[in-house]
Design brief:
Layout: H1 2-56, E1 61-67, H2 72-88, E2 93-99, E3 104-108, E4 111-115, H3 120-135, H4 139-150, H5 156-167, H6 172-179, H7 181-195, E5 206-209, H8 216-221, H9 223-228
Parallel strand pairs: 1-2
Antiparallel strand pairs: 1-5, 3-4
Amino acid sequence: MVAVNYRFRLLLAALSIFLLWQSTKMWAKFSWDNSIELQEIKLQDEKEKADTESKVRPQKVSVTVYYEALCPDSKSFVVKQLIPTYNAIPDNIQIELIPYGKAKTFKKGDNYQFMCQHGRIECDANIVHACAIDVIKVPFVQLSYVSCMLKHNIQPLSTMKACAKTMQVDYEPILNCYRSSRGTELLAMYGEMTEALDPKMSFVPTITLDKKVDNQPAILKNLLQQVCQRIQVQPLACM
């Protein structure tokens, strides 16, 4: 009788261990499956969030303007095309200004010298523009300041100060940049960017949309229309 009870207890213990082992396997599988399901749900949520943000976030077209400070066509484009287009669709346009044009750069030791299409005054004005672009980070203020200077660039330094006063911009950082090597380094950099255009610049200003140099006559005539053609979800100003 004692032996029977002993065997029964052994059998009961073995059964308990087996059931515990099976339940552990089932719990581990459940935890694994549940973890995978949670990961899939998280990935799906992240994808839906990204899709929503891409629909809400406005598409921006990159507009790069390669120009010269004393070029009448550059002034006309900035005043009559670039600023009105920015004002119409500010959330859909990203502007980059490159003041260099058909200038030439010469390196002498650690210093740069330039020869510009409209003479020494234009070189000075281009450097002032380069410094203003470097110092002023707010797109609308930067564009407005450059536009102001383009209207009266025959006297670059006095124009820099007058435009700063009109727009309540601190001109001292711009002036310090102009007087230091920073100004010539910036203009040399813009020269490299201009020389890298493919095809090469043949007319000033040259405009790229999303880094592409094509359809220049249409861009110069109606920038807003050409930018709008690149926007998938068009703002009201494009309709």
